[in-house]
Amino acid sequence: MTDPVEAARELIRGAAIEVIPIKGAERAVAAIPPATKVTITCSPKFGLDRTLEHVAKAARAGHRVVPHLAARQVTGRRGLGEIAERLADLGVTDLFVVGGDAKVPEGPFESATQLLSALAGLDHPFTSIGVTCYPEGHRQIPDEALMESLLAKQELADYMVSQLCFDPGALVGWLRSVRAAGVALPLNLGLAAPLNSRKLLELSLRIGVGSSVRFLGKQHGLVNSLVLGRDYEPEKLVAEIARQESFEDLGIAGLHLFSFNQVERTLQWQRGQTSALPA
C-alpha cells in the first residue's frame, strides 16, 4: 500500500509549473530550477508567436519546457508543420494541446482532437503529448461530449491535465468514473499554486470553477482568508487525495501547478512541503 505522505511529497516534488507569457514571465522562468518542467500557456490575446518566443528563451536557457498549442490558433497543416519544426530545433519533445478560446478559428482546426489527428500524420519531435480534462465539467460543453472527446484524444495523447479543482471528492469521483468508462491516460492533477485568496477567487470564478471555490470556502475557511489577506496553499488537498482508498489505481502521475506567475512563492511552498506535509 502506498504511503500517503510520501505519495503527496513525491507529487509536489515533481510538479510542473505553468507560466503565462506576459511581462515578467522571462524573469519568472529564470527562477525555476532546470530540472523542473515549465509549461507556457497560449491565448487569443497574446497569440501563438508570443508563446513560442517564450518557449525558445526557456529552452535555450536549459529548461524542460512544454508549449501549450491552441488548435484554434493554428492556421493549417502547413502552419502546424512549421511549429513542429521550430520546436524540434529547440529540442522540445513535450507538447500540450488545447482547443483554445478563440471564438473564430484561424484555420481548419476547431478542436484539440482535430489538431492531434493532423499532428499524427506529420514528422514531429514530440514523445509526450498532453490534453485537457474537466473534472467539474465545462460551461459550454455537455459532459457526454467531454467524455467522447477524451476517449478520442487518448488514442493520440500520452497524458491529461485537469482543469482547476478544489474539491477532492469531486475530483476523485470524476476520475473513478472516467477510468470505468475506459479512459486510461495518466493524470497530472491541475492545482492552483499558493496565491492570495482574493486573487485566487477572482481568477477561479473567471474561468468557471465557482462551485469548487464555494466548496473550498466552506471546507477550508476561504472567507476568513479573504478577510485576513491570507494565501491559499494546496497541500491539504494533495494529502487528502493521496489518502484515498486504492490511490495507486487512480492513475495520478504528477501535479501541474497553475502559478499565475507567482513563481517565487510557488517554489518556496514546494521546497517547504516536500519535507513537511499534513499527516
Automatic annotation (TrEMBL):
> What are the GO cellular component annotations?
cytosol
Q: Which UniProt keywords apply?
A: FAD, Flavoprotein, Oxidoreductase
InterPro entries noted in UniProt: FAD-linked_oxidoreductase-like, Mehydrof_redctse-like
The metabolic or biological pathway listed in the UniProt record of this protein is: One-carbon metabolism; tetrahydrofolate interconversion
Query: Sorted alphabetically, which Pfam families does this protein's record hold?
Result: MTHFR
Q: Which cofactor does it need?
A: FAD
Which reaction is catalysed here? (6S)-5-methyl-5,6,7,8-tetrahydrofolate + NAD(+) = (6R)-5,10-methylene-5,6,7,8-tetrahydrofolate + NADH + H(+)
Gene Ontology molecular function: FAD binding; methylenetetrahydrofolate reductase (NADH) activity
Record GO biological process: methionine biosynthetic process; tetrahydrofolate interconversion
Q: Which family does it belong to?
A: Belongs to the methylenetetrahydrofolate reductase family.
Name of the protein in its database record: Methylenetetrahydrofolate reductase
